[in-house]
Amino acid sequence: MTYLVAGLRLLAYALVFALLAGPHWLALKFGRGAHAGRAPVWLHRAFLHLFQVRLIVTGTPPAPGEAALVIANHISWLDIPVLGAVRPLSFVAKSEIAGWPVIGTLARLQRTVFIDRARKRHTAVVNTEMSRRLRAGDLIVLFAEGTTGDGTRLLPFRTSLVGAARAAITEGGLDRVRLQPLCIAYTRRHGLPLTRAERPDIAWYGDMELGPSVKLFFERGPIDVRVTWGEPVAFAAGTDRKVATALAEASVRRALQEAVTGRPPVPTPEPASGESASGGSAPGTPRADAPAAAAAPPILIPAATA
Predict the structure, then answer these.
(1) What's the angle, vertex CA 279, arms to CA 273 and CA 282, rounded to 5?
(2) How far apart are CA 56 and CA 70, in angstroms?
(3) Which residue in 50, 122, 157, 211 has the fewest CB atoms around it within 10 Å?
(4) End-to-end CA distance of the chain
(5) In this structure, what DSSP letter does residue 214 have?
(6) Mean pLDDT by 10 residues, the chain (306 residues)
(7) Domain extents for the chain?
(8) Coil, strand, or helix at residue 110?
């Protein structure tokens, strides 16, 4: 893509933004309605269309209005328009993003929950806000690695903000919250499978500056991205937060491995009959590494142990 073409497409996107941002802001200010949720989706879909990002979505997402916390991997700034184009949702993001040009405005329009990582006590504040939003039926996306990766491997998932699911139960009277694993994988460029050497051109991680990453995106051409909804994890009042997060991480890891390599992961050995994810007995409990059905039921996981 030449800089002239990129510039014209950016201009077209700016026009779309100008048409949608005002009504969307008013919808947010004076009461949520259909436009409050759909306008960001239209904006993100316009971006993907203009810049030739082909989105493939597989799996079963949460039902509209269901209390669901999405646990996802994170590769690039491009993840935001990709996920934002799928359906109405909000993100949890570091507070610095609120001050970024353009991106900060988009984040606020999408009702992003900002967290100040320099303040340890701010996690509790964010969990309370996330809990309130979950009880209201909002779909909240948490990038559980806490940073971006190179797109070929998964970093360990952090568990602290998953506490919002328990807060939604204890403070809001919900029976359970759906933890929804979600995998993002960039798979092709110009229709050809990405090589390991090409993946850093899409990923934005480490000490990379945002400007050069965006420049590479404009220069290198069309991209295919696969978004996979994994098997949901049912989070109840007594659920062990770390076990729940580990199950979500395992689901995302399997989906990422399959998307990157083109091959399903090697099955892990089955444990002894009746053994649960935490080593206890839980007869009839589906395992996290069980083959996914077309519409998998929630995974019921053991309660936290003292």
Answers:
(1) 55
(2) 18
(3) 211
(4) 58
(5) H
(6) 78 81 69 65 90 95 92 94 93 86 79 84 87 91 90 90 88 89 95 86 81 82 95 93 95 94 69 43 39 42 38
(7) 52-264
(8) coil
